[in-house]
């Protein structure tokens, strides 16, 4: 009796669409379920070197749940291949990439924007009290000035981390992306002014066995 080895053809594989609701689900369990569907691991026609998977849409990804202390201890790392290209961030920082939680350097700003008369409060303090100088105020108000909506919305901002200038930049980015959510036609003017670009600069960490991030101990032959 002759047995033939079956190998699926990608063009002949039947595919389905799946929707996974990640709300209050454990991150690892959601990832495993999505990976199995994407690979088609549970299909009878599964072939390791052929794409036999289905299409997956994950909703409410920002509300996924992590167990234990992973929110602070779980770290994502990447390396560009160049000197100083090592980057790492925890889950809390990774969530900061979403529009409702935005960063500049190490500063993070959450914003709540509602229709109003232009009232702004930051961390429970008035706008003029928190940013006392005109240059800092102009940094925050620049997206509203570009969109010609200075007195159109009330803003409640929660800023943490970094310095006062970094928090002003984080608030600026949060306002710009919030305006983009309200009116998609504002993308061109906001992008032309560079208001949709996140500033990823942050202090590089000290390396073990070295006196600083880049500094090295003086070479001693003996």
Order of helices and strands: EHEHEEHEEEEHHEHH
CATH architecture of the domain at 96-192: 2-Layer Sandwich
What proportion of the residues is helical, as a percent range?
25-40%
Number of strands: 9
Shape: extended
Beta-strand fraction estimate:
15-25%
The number of helical elements comes to 7
Low-pLDDT regions: 98-102
Arithmetic mean pLDDT:
83
Q: Pairing-aware structural class of the strands and helices? A: alpha/beta
The major sheet is characterized as: 5 strands, mixed
Q: How far apart lie the N and C ends?
A: 74 Å
Question: How are the elements arranged and paired?
Answer:
Blueprint: E1 17-21, H1 27-39, E2 55-59, H2 70-73, E3 75-79, E4 86-90, H3 91-95, E5 102-104, E6 107-115, E7 120-122, E8 125-126, H4 127-130, H5 134-146, E9 153-160, H6 164-182, H7 187-192
Parallel strand pairs: 1-2, 7-9
Antiparallel strand pairs: 3-4, 5-6, 6-9, 7-8
Describe this structure in words.
The protein is an alpha/beta fold and 222 residues long. Among the domains are: 16-63, no CATH class; 96-192, Ribosomal Protein S5, domain 2 (2-Layer Sandwich). Helices cover 29% and strands 20% of the residues. The protein has helices spanning 27-39, 70-73, 91-95, 127-130, 134-146, 164-182, 187-192, and strands at residues 17-21, 55-59, 75-79, 86-90, 102-104, 107-115, 120-122, 125-126, 153-160. The strands form three sheets. It has a five-stranded mixed sheet with strand order 5-6-9-7-8. Strands 1-2 form a two-stranded parallel sheet. It has a two-stranded antiparallel ribbon with strand order 3-4. Helix 5 packs parallel to helix 6. The longest helix is centred in the last third of the chain and has 19 residues, at 164-182.
């Amino acid at each position: 009796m002759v047995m033939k080895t079956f190998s699926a053809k990608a063009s002949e594989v039947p595919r389905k669409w799946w929707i996974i609701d990640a709300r209050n689900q454990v991150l690892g369990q959601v990832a495993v379920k999505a990976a199995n569907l994407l690979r088609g691991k549970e299909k009878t026609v599964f072939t390791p070197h052929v794409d036999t998977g289905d299409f997956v849409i994950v909703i409410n990804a920002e509300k996924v749940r992590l167990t234990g202390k992973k929110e602070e201890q779980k770290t994502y790392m990447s390396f560009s291949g160049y000197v100083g290209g090592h980057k790492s961030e925890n889950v809390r920082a990774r969530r900061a990439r979403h529009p409702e939680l935005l960063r500049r350097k190490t500063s993070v700003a959450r914003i709540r924007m509602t229709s109003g008369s232009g009232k702004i409060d930051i961390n429970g303090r008035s706008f003029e009290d928190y940013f006392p100088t005109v240059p800092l105020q102009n940094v925050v108000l620049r997206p509203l000035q570009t969109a010609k909506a200075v007195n159109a919305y009330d803003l409640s901002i929660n800023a943490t981390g970094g310095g006062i200038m970094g928090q002003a930049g984080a608030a600026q980015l949060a306002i710009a992306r919030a305006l983009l959510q309200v009116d998609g036609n504002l993308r061109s003017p906001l992008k032309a002014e560079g208001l949709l670009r996140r500033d990823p600069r942050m202090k590089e960490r000290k390396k073990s066995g070295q006196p600083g991030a880049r500094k090295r101990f003086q070479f001693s032959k003996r």
